[in-house]
Design goal:
It contains 3 helices and 5 strands. With about 170 residues, the protein is α+β, with helices and mostly antiparallel strands. It has a domain of about 110 residues: Beta Barrel (OB fold (Dihydrolipoamide Acetyltransferase, E2P)). It starts with a helix and ends in a 17-residue tail after the last helix. Keywords: Lipoprotein, Signal.
């Protein structure tokens, strides 16, 4: 009888615990448009005309900022986004793109190496270079952007670990 009771409790507690952990994940920061592109930047770079004027929500690691006379351009190494639209920088990169922003962008607010998510419209492409290699950069006319802080990146992440055995972990 005790075993059945313990088994029943375990079966009902596990789904509840999983639901609580899932509920801790932050909601997406941008609402996806119905015609939003699900392709990655490297795919769009191969045939940019196919995706002209479509909406995207992309993110990644900031490579650099270039301030021009009437707008700024932020080069981004793209990474897949999680359910909260945070870039997953531990994944392999999925191409590069240029986020075109109106006006002046302070490079201290968009630091090289920082993680960013942008929402905007595809607006063609531009040939350029990555190192010595030729590269085609999709251009995103940015409507909204968000540079992630370390606290935001860790929010909602599961700090509970299950295992068998003895161990010591230092973080």
């Amino acid at each position: 009888m005790r075993i059945r009771l313990a088994s029943l409790m375990f079966r009902s507690l596990v789904p509840a615990a999983l639901l609580m952990l899932a509920a801790c994940a932050p909601a997406p920061i941008y609402k996806a448009a119905p015609d939003a592109v699900s392709a990655q930047p490297f795919q769009v770079a191969q045939s940019p005309e196919q995706f002209a004027s479509r909406q995207v929500i992309w993110g990644g690691r900031i490579v650099g900022v270039d301030n021009l006379a009437d707008h700024s351009e932020v080069e981004i190494l793209a990474y897949p986004l999680d359910k909260s639209q945070r870039p997953q920088a531990n994944d392999s990169g999925s191409g590069r793109f240029i986020a075109v922003m109106p006006g002046y962008v302070e490079s201290l607010d968009y630091p090289a190496g920082g993680l960013i998510t942008v929402s905007g419209q595809l607006n063609g492409s531009r040939a350029g270079k990555v190192g010595q290699a030729d590269y085609v950069f999709p251009l995103v006319q940015v409507n909204q952007s968000h540079v992630w802080t370390a606290d935001e990146l860790n929010k909602g992440k599961n700090n509970v670990h299950f295992g068998v055995g003895v161990g010591v972990g230092i973080r």
